[in-house]
Design a protein that fits this description.
Two copies of one chain form a homodimer. Chain A is of the alpha+beta class. Chain A has eight helices and eleven strands. Chain A has a four-stranded antiparallel β-sheet. In chain A, strands 8-9-11-10 form a four-stranded antiparallel β-sheet. In chain A, strand 8 and strand 9 form a beta hairpin. In chain A, helix 6 crosses helix 7. Chains A and B meet through strand 4, strand 5, helix 3 and helix 4 of A and strand 4, strand 5, helix 3 and helix 4 of B. Chain A binds a DNA duplex through helix 7.
Chain lengths: 243, 243
DNA sequence: CGACAAATTGAGCCGGATCAAACTGAGTGG
DNA sequence: CCACTCAGTTTGATCCGGCTCAATTTGTCG
């Protein structure tokens, strides 16, 4: 399944739209936006008037504190990071382009009527934010209760599975624009220790990170090391409708 | 503001209900449920058919892995932990009563029609799940990137502010049914180190935890130590309506 | 070629984990 | 009313995973 490049396509991938719903989603004005690696799209404290679907590239959700940055999530094509600002006016995180990105931007003034008039669509967007919360939950465990090698392994498993779901990875690896700094911010490890951990994983013959690419040599051992269970990603999430 | 004991009361506290909405919320069948401390209400993997509002007591949202438990959130009266299961069929966390609890239980088969017919109510419930996600985000930072004393201090600040919002705490402290084991699971610290950290905080004259009570001796220093900023709790959260 | 960000490696240190033991205190049952 | 139990707390001793800081190397791009 390739990554959807519009909200309409993403919605269609999850539920069967009625004609009215499809029409409403189709007539949503979308703007395209490109950004360069490292650009900050949203800053904590902002009151965004739009949200965006990632068409291409990765976006980090992060918090900064005493100049130290924590990455809370890495959003992949098809994701809508910062959707929370649709109903929580002020955003409390930064959104940063990890590499060059292309986005499809939707005005909240268009999305909110959509949600009010089409409850099934509202519930679908809602469920996306629930999946994000579930991922946050797993990251609390990852960052707070696991050893360095397991943290890194788990992060890689998650990324590969999420990217695979939109056709951007397979069990042999994926493009990985994250630097070791990023990996440190996402796992709560120092860059130096990330480096040593990657070296160990390489020497173990589990994976190689090099030249902006993650090459997985032994997926099974990676999963075992991470003790990775993808349930929390709700990749088959279809909201249950009871009318 | 006392803690709401029904969904209706909680909704009224956040938005002005239309007559139709109030009537719909009023006619929601609710069941009361009491549980003893330590009881598990929901287990990861469950497919709950109901959600509940906490009337009294604390509930931990937790994950277990190799017998090691991580607490992801501590829900207080007025909260609706596990609401995610309304639209994410299978729950991926445990819900555990920390002390004796009283709950108001609502069937999903009643809540889902409510959401479909009353979009403003749907959006309000949605926003509650968004606040939960925001709290998760802050916990990723807490547990992954902060020193032991700051973790504990931050957790206490959060609990006191959230409990204060429902009339169960003030700046001088609150009832605290959490054991040092719980505190360890919530902060990613070993029970032994929690104990030492609490001793340090006591010797510093910042707070005393004893006899199931948190006594705060110096709120300002506690906030400074934690570098606590309550924005992420969205205590004044009122969804923006654009019809 | 020079500049600059990222990756790599080493040395030394320290915060917090682990393990074990002793201590408290709130039931519980005789 | 006491003895017993058991969960939770407290403390000590020791260890180690990961941090810090600094230096060096690599890779990339203008």
């Amino acid at each position: 399944m390739p990554s959807p490049s519009t909200l309409l396509a993403k919605l269609e991938g999850v539920i069967d739209l009625t004609e009215a719903e499809a029409e409403a989603a189709r007539s949503l004005p979308a703007r395209r936006l490109r950004l360069a690696a490292g650009e900050t799209l949203r800053r904590a404290g902002d009151k965004p008037t739009s949200s965006f679907l990632i068409v291409e590239g990765l976006v980090a959700t992060a918090k900064i504190e005493d100049g130290r940055r924590s990455i809370l999530n890495v959003s992949v094509p098809g994701d809508v990071p910062g959707l929370s600002s649709l109903y929580l006016r002020v955003l409390d995180v930064d959104l940063v382009a990890i590499d060059d990105c292309e986005l499809a931007v939707y005005q909240h003034d268009d999305l909110r009527p959509l949600c009010l008039h089409h409850p099934r669509l509202a519930v679908t967007l809602w469920s996306w934010t629930l999946v994000t919360a579930s991922i946050y939950g797993e990251w609390i465990v990852n960052v707070g209760h696991r050893s360095a090698p397991r943290r890194i392994a788990h992060l890689f498993c998650e990324l590969v599975i999420r990217l695979e779901a939109v056709g951007l990875a397979d069990r042999s690896g994926c493009e990985l624009p994250l630097t070791q700094i990023h990996l440190g911010e996402a796992t709560g490890l120092s860059p130096a220790h990330v480096n040593r951990t990657l070296r160990d994983l390489r020497q173990e013959g589990i994976l190689i990170v090099s030249g902006g690419r993650l090459s997985i040599l032994d997926w099974d051992r990676l999963v075992t090391l991470a003790q990775f269970r993808p349930d929390y990603l709700y990749l088959s999430a279809r909201p249950p409708w009871s009318d």
